[in-house]
Amino acid sequence: MEGLTIGSDSPGERFFMLGNEAIARGAIEAGVQVAAAYPGTPSTEILETLAGVAETLGIYVEWSINEKVAFEVALAASLCGVRAMASMKHVGVNVAHDPLMTAGYIGAKGGLVLLSADDPWAWSSQNEQDTRYIAEQAYIPVLEPSSVQEAKDMMADAFGLSEEFKHLFMVRSVTRIGHGRSDVALGEISKEMKKGSFEKDRSWLVYTPVVARKNRVLMLERFEKIKKAVNTFPYNQLKLVDGARQGIIACGLSYSYTLEAIKWLRVDGEISVLKIGTPHPLPEDLVKRLLNSVEEVLVVEELEPFVELHVRAIAGEANIPVRIHGKDLVPAVGELSAGKVTEAIARLTNSRSPVDFGELDKLEQEMASILPPRPPALCPGCPHRASQYAMKVAGRRVAKEYGKDMEPIYPGDIGCYTLSYLPPIESMDINICMGGGFGIANGLAHVVDVPIIAQIGDSTFFHSGLPAMINAVYNKANITMVILDNSATAMTGFQPHPGTGYTAVGEETESVRPENIARACGVRFVEVIDPFDLEKAIETFEKAIEYDGPSVVIARSPCAIIEQREKQVRGEKTVPYYIDQERCRVKCEACIQLLACPAIVKENGKVIINGSLCTGCEVCAMVCPHKAIIQE
Amino acid sequence: MKQIVKEVNILIVGVGGQGVISMSELLGQAVVDSGLNVRGSEVLGMAVRGGSVVSTIRIGSEVYGPLIPRGKGDIIVGMEPTEALRNIAYLSKSGIVILHTEAVIPFTVSLGQSEYPDSDKIVERLNGVANRVVALDAARIASEAGSPLVANIVLLGALFATGRVPIKAEAIRGAIRARFSVKLAPLNLKAFDLGYRQCRQAFK
Does B121 map to a domain? Predict the structure, then answer.
C-alpha cells in the first residue's frame, strides 16, 4: 500500500477515499485535461483533489469566479477536442443554467461532463433542489451513482460516453456520495493527451435563431439515440425474481439502501429490483419489463418524484396495469437511509419491522427535549464577529439619532458570516442565494425608509455580488454594502479566489481588490477597515450609513483559522485573554450576550475564557464594561 | 477474494474540532489495509463550525450504504457526552458506548437558552439503551501520553479493546504510523495503547 496516491497508475489496487476524491480519480482515469469549478459543499474536494495532481498529470485546473464561467471554460475546452469537466453544488447549476440550456444544442467534441453535487436535507445549503429537473429541461443525460465506487466508475466512463454520443453528460452526486467514504478499486489512467484546436463552424456555434432551430433538431436526434442506448448501460440492472408480486425501482444511492433494507426485512427472495443509474433518460425497456412482471411497484429515490413520474408515464402509455408507489411511502423531505427505506418497504410488503421505529422516534424526541442544541457558530477570533458587532452598534446609533422605527434592515449572503443571523448577534435578516444580499438591498432601498446594511463575503462578492453593486450606483439605491474580506472562501475550506493573489494550483497572480472595483464602479464612499479596530470600525460604519448614496465598507482581516495556522508555522505564540474574577464580580455577561464566542463559557457560576480556544483577538476585552478581560 | 465478514456499524460523534473525522479516516484506512469492505460518511461545511459532528464507519461483506440505520449501531464512540446521547437511537440493544467524559459546553448554554444535563444523568440515560457503557477521561489519559490533543486516539484504542472491530490492532497502528510524521507517530501510538489498556481492563 505504500506510496499509493490519488494519482497512482495502479489498476486493481484498493484505496480508501472520500467520494469526491473518487469522482476526481474517475476523471483522472478518463484523462481529463481541463477542470473548472466554484467551491460549494458538497462538491469542493473534487477540484481540490485535481488541483493536487494538476502539475504531475498535466491537467489545467482552475477555481473559476462562479459556476457559469466554470461551465463555459469546460465547454470551450470540449469544443477544442479535449476532455473537460465542471463541478459545482446543486445551486451552482442554477448559476450555470444559462449556458447549460444551449449546451444541449451544441453537444460536445472532447468528452464534457458536468458534475452536480446535490444536498438532500440541505446540510450545507439554502434548499434541497433536485438538479435532475434542470438536466431534463436541458436535454442532458444523467448518470447517478449508487456508491462511491460507482461514482468513480461513472466519472471514468462519462467522458467516453460524451464523445460517443457527441453530447454532454451530467453525473449527479449527493452529499452521502461526495462525503461518503469507501474502499475503491482503482482503474487504469488514460495516457492520451490531446492538443486542443478550435475549428470554426458558425452554423453550429453562433446561437442566432436560425442556428438554434437547426441544432435543436440535431439535439433531439442525439437524445433519442441515448434513450435507446441506456437500456444496455451497465449502471441499469434488472433482477427479476420468479413469481414476485412486487418490485422496487431504486435510483442512485437509494439502490444501496434498498439492498440493505430487503436483506434486513428478509424479503430479498420475494421482490424484483430494478437499479437505475440513468434517471434521465430512463431505460424504458427495463422499466416495462419490470412493470409487466409485478402487480405493485415502489419507486425509491431521494427528493423529488422524478423517476416516479416518468415510470407512471411509461406505465400509462404502455397500458400496464400495475400499482405504482413512490412518495406516498418514501419521504420527499431530507436524505434517505437504509432505515427509512426499510420503513417504506416494510409498509409495501406488510412485513414486520426489524426494530420498532416508532419507539426510536419517541426516544429521539425525548433526547432532543433534554439536550442543549449545538448549532454551528463563528469560530473564536473570527473577524466576522467583530464586523457584525461594529455594524450593529453603528446601526443602532444611527437609528437613535434619526428617531423611532429607524431600525436598519440587514440583508445578507452565503458564507460563514451567515451564522450571524443566530442570537445574540442577529445581524442578518434575509439571505436567499449567492449574491442575493446586495440585490435584495437594492429593492428594499426603493420601498422602505430605514437604513439598509447589506453584507457579503469576498469570494461571494466576486461570484455574483458585483452586478448588484453596479445596479445600486446606476439606480441610486441608498444602501450600505459591506464586504467581509477574510482573504479566503472560508466556509468551504479556504479556497483561493480572485482577491487572494494566487490560483487553484498555488501560482501567484494579480490580486483583484474590491475597493478598486467599487471606486471604478462609481461608488463615492469607499472605506477599508480593520474590524478588530472596533472604535474606528463603528465610526466608519456610522459614516457609511449616514452617507447619502450607495456606500461600501470593506472589513479586511484574514480568516482566524488561516491566521492561527500561519502563526504556528511562523512559530508565533498565541497569548490568550483571561477574566479577572475580582473585576468580574457583577457578572453582567456582556461578553457572552454580545459576542457568543465559543471560547467564553460559564462554569460553576463564573464566566471564564477557555485558553486553548482563545486566539487573543481582544474583542471581548474591548466590549467588557468592567475592564475585567486581560491578556495573560 | 475478500473475507466474508459480519456487519459492524460504528458511529463516531463529537464536536467540530475534536478529531472525529481523523478517527474515521484512520479506522477506515486500517479496515481497507486489512482487506475488508468499508463504507462511511460525514457531513462537512456549514455543519462543522463548532457544531455537532457525526461520522459513520461500517464494516462487512454486505454493507452497501454509507449511513447506519437507527437501532443497528454496534458501537458509539462519543468524544462528548451529550453528543453520544443525541445519537443513542442509532444503537442496537446489544450496543456499546465508549465515552470521553469531558463536556464541551455549547454556546446555547452560556447564553442561557438551554441547560447542560448532569453528567451522571447522561451516563444513566446511555445505560438505559446500551448493553454497556465504558466511560473514560480520554483527555487525562492523552496528557499522560504527552498531549491532551490526542484524546481522540485514546478513544480509538478503547474502541479496539471492545474486541468488536474485526481487524487486528496492528492494522490501526500501521495506519497511525503512515499518517503521522516520525515526530508525532510515537505520541499517537502511545495514546492508542493507553486507551486500549484502560478499556481492556473494563472488558476483562
Answer: yes
Is residue A472 included in any domain, yes or no? yes
CA distances from A293 to A244, A282, A286 (A): 8, 18, 11
Distance between start and end Cα atoms, chain A? 48
Q: Say if B63 is an interface residue toward chain A (CB within 8 Å).
A: yes
ipTM of this model?
0.94
CATH assignment at residue B16: 3.40.920.10
Where a domain ends, among A339, A365, A391? A365
Does residue A163 share a domain with residue A85? yes
Q: Check: pTM over 0.90? Answer yes or no.
A: yes
Alpha-carbon span A374 to B114, nearest angstrom:
10
Q: What integer pLDDT is reported at residue B46 of this predicted model? A: 52
> Which DSSP helix (H) or strand (E) runs through A505?
none
Average pLDDT for runs of 10 along chain A of length 632:
80 94 98 98 97 97 98 98 98 98 98 98 95 98 98 98 98 97 96 95 98 98 98 98 98 98 95 98 98 98 98 98 98 95 96 93 96 92 97 94 83 95 94 98 96 97 98 98 94 93 96 98 98 98 97 97 92 95 92 94 90 94 96 87
Whether residue B168 lies inside any domain: the answer is yes
Inter-chain residue contact A260 with B70, CB threshold 8 Å: no
Residue B24 with chain A: CB contacts under 8 Å:
181
**Would an 8 Å CB–CB cutoff place B64 in contact with chain A?**
yes
CA A361 from chain centre, in angstroms, equals 29
Classified as helix, coil or strand, A64 is coil
Q: Please write the tens of the pLDDT for every residue from B20-63.
A: 999 999 999 999 999 999 999 987 655 556 789 999 999 999 99
For residue A371, being part of any structural domain is answered with: no
Is residue A153 within 8 Å of A143, Cβ to Cβ? no
Domain identity same for A357 and A397: no
CB contact under 8 A, A357 and B71: yes
Yes or no, beta carbons of B64 and A337 under 8 Å apart: no
Q: Which of A567, A598, A619 is the last residue of a domain?
A: A567
Measure the CA–CA gap between A527 and A540, rounded to whole angstroms: 7
Inter-chain CB proximity A181 and B106 less than 8 Å? no
* Candidates A125, A182, A335; nearest CB to B38: A182
Same domain, yes or no, for A124 and A85?
A: yes
Q: Does B139 touch chain A (CB under 8 A)?
A: no
Domain of residue A121: give its range: 14-231
Mutate to test the interface with A, among B44, B113, B115, B124 (most CBs of A within 10 A): B44
A241 and A339 within one domain:
yes
CATH code, A243: 3.40.50.920
Across the range B2-6, mean pLDDT stands at: 75
Q: Which of B33, B70, B172 to mutate to probe the A interface, most A CBs <10 Å?
A: B70
In the predicted model, is pLDDT for residue B2 greater than 80? no
Contacts of B110 in chain A (CB under 8 A): 592, 596, 600-602
Distance CA A342, CA A370 (A): 28
A415/A298 same-domain check: no
B-chain CB neighbours of A354 within 8 Å are 71
CB-nearest to A337 from B16, B65, B111 is B65
Separation in Å, CA A539 to CA A309, A417, A473, A542:
58, 21, 23, 5
Within 8 A of A372 by CB-CB distance, chain B residues are: 82, 105-106, 108-109, 113-117
Binary contact (A259, B106; C-beta < 8 A): no
Identify residue A149 by its one-letter amino acid code: Q
Instruction: Please tell me whether residues A165 and A293 are part of one structural domain.
Output: no
Assess whether A138 and A199 both reside in one domain. yes
